[in-house]
Design goal:
Layout lengths: L13 H12 L1 H34 L5 H5 L1 E5 L5 E5 L6 E9 L5 E3 L14 E8 L5 E5 L5 H11 L5 E9 L2 E8 L6 E8 L6 E4 L4 E5 L2 E5 L3 E6 L2 E5 L3 E9 L1 H25 L2 E2 L4 E2 L6 H14 L18 E2 L13 E2 L1 H10 L1 H9 L12 H13 L4 H65 L1
Antiparallel strand pairs: 1-15, 2-14, 3-11, 3-15, 4-8, 4-10, 5-6, 5-9, 7-8, 11-12, 13-14, 16-17, 18-19
Length: about 450
């Protein structure tokens, strides 16, 4: 803003007059700023809704796959004895498992050496190790080799056989070479051909295989992890003892997934209601009240969930038959929120699992659009809003274009306002100069008149 102008001739505060005049001139700019803020707020609201829809899609996605309803779970009576992981190919059933022997890897230990691990041992010779039925491996030991050097040589030679060598301080100042195998159930033999003293390796832990019974049938494996005894079931043996393993369809996971979906669905409705309301007392509406796109979204959300998949296929036709509704009769949710009757849903799974799968995930008649699954169709509907070329990205692009257009208008208006301000300041400055000239002329005339009278 230019320097302050004061009407010294009249005593008027010209700066205040200019500011008041400029307030009137800036009204269109204030309207543009308000409009831009409203666009920014609406844009933020739609982005929040888009994020919530994407979160709902994540919750829904597993429920649209048939494999989610065929997943198995394993329950173990004593998890300290064993653990189990199960694949979808596992057959439902119960298994009694008795672990009598755990698989162990052999451990070899040398004699104790009262030397620093980096100090030469002064022994030489050849060390031969044989793992299982593999070819023997030889390690040449020289007089200048230390314990650490010997360990490195053994590790390099036995790298492909799972041999691990380390130096342990068994007693203060006394160290020992310890050789172990990574895999259980394998044997390791050692031969030492040394001149004079040797390492004196001995087996301190004997190799053993895992022995166990499944429903009375004896099994033996090299490892404590067994994946080929029961199809689709992997066992990890931990200790000796007995435990029962029950394999069944994982209904709990389906129920929990469905509950998570319903919670996210209801959360989306709450968010929409936050922007889509009308207060009759204040005569004001929510930020997105009356927005056609929001009304369409809300309508398609409700119609997608509560539609029927038709009567051409056996099983269930709508979600109310499997326990998904807006509440019991007489107490249903007015805002369309979903609730789950868990008992009814579990009964539906038990009575007609394929019917539940067909209702929610689809796999019906491809020539009948009404036969696609409720959630599969709902997923496609929501993706029309969130996809790259969906309704919401397009709406966001519109907001961006509007925001840029208003910014350009504001920039142009700011320039015009600056010009207007400068013009007013020049005009008032010119007026001040004019008044000063008039004052000067008035004084001159007064002096002339006084001179005339004094001359007489």
């Amino acid at each position: 803003m230019s320097s302050k102008v004061t009407m010294s001739m009249t005593g008027l505060d010209t700066e205040t007059l200019i500011q008041e005049l400029m307030k009137v001139e800036r009204i269109p700019l204030a309207k543009l700023e308000s409009k831009q803020k409203q666009i920014s707020d609406k844009r933020a609201a739609w982005n929040t809704i888009k994020s919530k829809i994407e979160s709902l899609l994540q919750k829904m996605s597993p429920l649209t796959s048939k494999s989610a309803y065929e997943a198995k779970t394993a329950k173990i009576s004593d998890p300290s004895v064993l653990s189990a992981s199960v694949s979808d190919s596992a057959v439902a059933g119960s298994y009694h498992i008795e672990v009598t022997t755990l698989a162990k890897a052999p451990v070899l230990q040398s004699q104790l050496f009262q030397k620093d691990p980096n100090e030469a041992l002064d022994i030489s010779g050849e060390l031969t190790l044989t793992v299982g039925s593999n070819d023997p491996i030889s390690v040449q030991i020289e007089e200048g080799d230390s314990l650490n050097t010997i360990a490195d040589k053994i590790n390099q030679a036995g790298a492909g056989f799972g041999i691990k060598t380390s130096i342990l301080q068994v007693k203060p100042g006394e160290h020992s070479v310890v050789i172990t195998l990574e895999s259980t159930g394998q044997t390791i033999t050692v031969e030492e051909a040394f001149v004079g003293d040797s390492l004196g390796l001995e087996e301190v832990v004997e190799s053993s295989t895992a022995k166990f019974k499944i429903n009375g049938i004896e099994f033996e494996r090299d490892s404590n992890t067994i994946s080929d005894a029961i199809p689709g079931l992997t066992l990890d043996l931990s200790k000796l003892g007995e435990a029962s393993v029950s394999v069944a369809l994982n209904d709990d996971a389906i129920v929990n997934g469905l509950k998570g979906f319903i919670d996210e669905y209801n959360s989306l409705l709450d968010l929409i209601a936050k922007y889509n309301f009308w207060d009759n007392d204040t005569k004001t509406g929510g930020l997105l009240f009356g927005d056609p796109l929001l009304q369409r979204l809300l309508s398609e959300i409700r119609s997608s969930i509560f539609r029927s998949i038709g009567d051409s296929l056996p099983g269930f036709a709508f979600v109310g038959q499997i326990g998904i509704s807006t509440g019991p009769l007489g107490a249903s949710s007015r805002d369309g929120k979903l609730s789950l009757d868990e008992s009814k849903f579990r009964e539906a799974l038990a009575a007609d699992r394929e019917g539940v799968i067909r209702l929610l995930s689809g796999e019906g008649d491809p020539e009948s659009p009404d036969s696609s699954g409720i959630l599969t169709k709902f997923q496609s509907t929501l993706q029309m809003y969130t996809s790259y070329n969906g309704f919401l990205p397009l709406r966001d692009a519109q907001f961006e274009a509007q925001n840029k257009d208003i910014s350009r208008q504001m920039e142009n208006l700011e320039q015009r306002l600056d010009m207007k301000l400068n013009r007013l300041q020049r005009q008032f400055t010119a007026l001040e100069k004019c008044l000063m000239q008039m004052e000067t002329q008035s004084l001159w005339l007064s002096q002339q008149v006084m001179a005339m009278f004094s001359f007489q």
